[in-house]
Amino acid sequence: LSGEIHRDWREVIAEGVAEKKLPVTLSSPNTSHEDSDDCGAIILGMEEERRNWDKIGANLNNLRTKTLIKDADIVVVRFGPKYRQWNAAFDAGYASALGKEIITLHPPEISHMLKEVNSAASVVCEEAGQVVDTLAYVINGDLPPPRDGDKFVPIADRLGAGNPNP
Question: Domain residues of the chain, as ranges?
Answer without folding.
Answer: 2-138
